[in-house]
Design a protein that fits this description.
heterodimer, A: 276 residues, 11 helices, 68% helix, B: 300 residues, alpha/beta, Rossmann fold, six-stranded mixed β-sheet, four-stranded antiparallel β-sheet, elongated
Chain lengths: 276, 300
């Protein structure tokens, strides 16, 4: 075999295809992804399965939900924290998704595999884009298993299934679309805190719970909080059971806009700082 | 055209230069032995070449192109510090991920090819974490070899290997340069091993390149000496010193530098009443050359 000194510059498509290929291969070939899918299914099942159970003193606490679809989304946008029932819905996927992204990216650095990636990929945006897209896909899949877990548990417990189907579908689709924005935020946070695995997990968890937005929501109130839709948590809350096509468009615009912002910022930081 | 051309490269950490205005030239097809003590800046230079670190200043050109050019970087393979593999994944999966990353076609064939080169055809299905250190180093080489690389950067690839492991690694490196035309930059503390394969050397100290030379130049600079033994080493030593000047006692032998006429030495010592019991011709090796160079630098 003779060695030719020909250097063909790979196109953007070739580069991103290579990086995405690696990340998808890794996602499907490691147990972590399947564990998180199972966790996403287990959470609504646990909430719906245990709600309204008898207390040790014989009293029965009020059920968290009477309608199964409230495990997916609230009836109206609830930016401020009012009760656990209005908070604990499919948005929790984004909390666990953040932890998954932290582990996924953390392993790149911990194993040293990131050296292979950055040796052959001079353009840092390849890394940011690929991680964002693959983690968004993983979180969207978690939304699906969350939905399945809620439906199965709701049916077993015998909860009410009545809903405006169109709004429900839009809410679910909108939340799945929001995965892109959330994945880009977590990728960005993990790039910033790449040398500190614990900090990256903690920061992902903090943002995933939506605490900063909830705090603002508490101040301005739910009815005045629609401007919070420009944030990831705000638009995730906006995707509720009264959603319409505007909701879908808002979620799409917000998710894509933040994904672009975080990718540009993350690529810049990576290109101006040492890999490890 | 050179495989690597570095001019005025600098990198500092907390105000301390790890690489200090370094110049480096690696010809195409060379096995470049990169030598220096711990903390001299070898690994930092290699990481800079691979784009893992951002330089403070200077230029790095690979095959005449800027080192950030994706076209040239896709043909760089590296083994720096460790193989960079996922421990719970199999050897095959790790290689497959790198093959996908490089956008290779016929990935399975390519993986089998590199596994054959590193003599690990039978170990593809085991998990990376269950491999021995020598196997991990060879997997690292296999990862670096995927995709027909034009340049390999290997940081201490023979560290921790046993004698057999070192021999296998040496054969692999000679094979890939001779048969695949790779340029190899290899840093190592085991200079005896490096001497067997390197075609060029770069000696770095305090982040600066203090000498670059080819193996031929190195050979011409390495001095010959004769080592001998007599009953009265002290007396023989002073007699030899009077006539030949540069005589040292090392490891139980008298070393007479720049003299390789053994018959003349034996006759001269006999004339002065010293019987030689053992004598042989030698040449200063890379290790001694390096130690001498470093001593001279320290003295300066």
């Amino acid at each position: 075999m003779t060695h030719e000194l020909r250097f063909e510059t790979p196109t953007f498509t070739q580069r991103i295809k290579g990086m995405l290929g690696v990340d998808f291969y890794r996602l499907f070939h490691t147990p972590m992804f399947y564990i998180f899918l199972a966790i996403a299914a287990f959470i609504p099942a646990l909430i719906l399965g245990t709600t309204g159970m008898s207390n040790p003193d014989g009293t029965v606490s009020a059920p968290l939900y009477t309608n199964v679809w409230n495990a997916i989304a609230a009836n109206t946008p609830l930016y401020a924290f009012e009760d656990m029932g209005g908070y604990a819905n499919m948005n929790m996927v984004f909390i666990f998704g953040g932890i998954m992204v932290s582990i996924f990216i953390g392993h790149d650095y911990k194993s040293g595999y990131v050296k292979q990636l950055f040796t052959t990929h001079a353009k840092k945006q390849d890394y940011m884009m690929s991680k964002t897209l693959v983690c968004a896909f993983a979180m969207a899949c978690m939304c699906v298993t969350y939905l399945l877990g809620a439906v199965v548990a709701g049916a077993l417990v015998g909860l009410d299934f009545s809903v405006n189907f169109g709004s429900l579908l839009i809410a679910i689709l909108s939340k799945m679309i929001m995965s892109l924005g959330w994945a880009s935020l977590y990728t960005f946070l993990n790039v910033i805190f790449r040398r500190y695995f614990g900090v990256s997990i903690a920061s992902s968890f903090l943002f995933g719970t939506g605490l900063p937005i909830i705090a603002i929501g508490m101040i301005v109130g739910n009815s005045a909080g629609s401007f919070l839709n420009i944030f990831l948590y705000g638009s995730s809350v906006y995707a509720c059971l009264s959603a319409n096509m505007v909701t879908l468009l808002v979620c799409l615009a917000v998710s894509v806009a933040w994904a672009v912002v975080y990718n540009v910022l993350g690529s810049y930081i990576l290109s101006k700082s040492d890999v490890y | 055209m050179n495989a690597i051309e570095i001019r005025n490269l600098s990198k500092s950490f907390r105000g301390m230069y790890a690489v200090d205005h370094l110049n480096m030239t690696v010809p195409v097809g060379a096995i470049y032995g990169f030598i220096g003590e711990n903390g001299s800046g070898k690994s930092t230079t290699e990481k800079l070449i691979c784009g893992h670190l951002v330089p403070d200043g200077g230029d790095i050109k690979l095959f005449g192109r800027d080192y950030t050019d994706p076209g040239v970087r896709v043909r760089v393979g590296a083994l720096i510090e460790n193989a960079g593999c996922f421990p719970n994944s199999s050897v095959w999966d790790n290689l497959m991920m790198q093959a996908i990353n490089l956008g290779l076609e016929n990935r399975a064939d390519e993986i089998n090819r590199v596994l054959k080169i590193v003599r690990m055809e039978d170990s593809a299905r085991i998990s990376f974490k269950s491999c021995s250190l020598g196997m991990k180093q060879r997997i690292g080489i296999a990862m670096a070899l995927l995709g027909d690389p034009a340049l390999l950067i290997l940081d201490e690839p023979i560290n921790g290997l046993d004698t057999d492991g070192m021999r296998i690694m040496r054969e692999i490196l000679i094979d890939i340069t001779q048969n695949y035309g790779c340029t190899v930059v290899i840093s190592s503390h085991i200079l005896g091993e490096l001497e067997k394969i390197a075609t060029h050397y770069g000696i770095i100290r305090g982040g600066r390149m203090i000498q670059e030379l080819s193996a031929k130049e190195m050979e011409s600079r390495c001095r010959v000496f004769t080592s001998l033994k007599t009953k009265d080493m002290l007396g023989a030593g002073s007699v030899l010193k009077q006539k030949f000047g540069n005589v040292r006692e090392e490891e139980g032998y008298l070393r007479v530098y720049d003299v390789d006429d053994t018959e003349m030495l034996v006759a001269y010592l006999l004339q002065n009443g010293h019987v030689v019991s053992e004598i042989r011709k030698n040449k200063v090796g890379l290790e001694e050359y390096y130690v001498e160079l470093m001593s001279r630098r320290e003295a300066e």
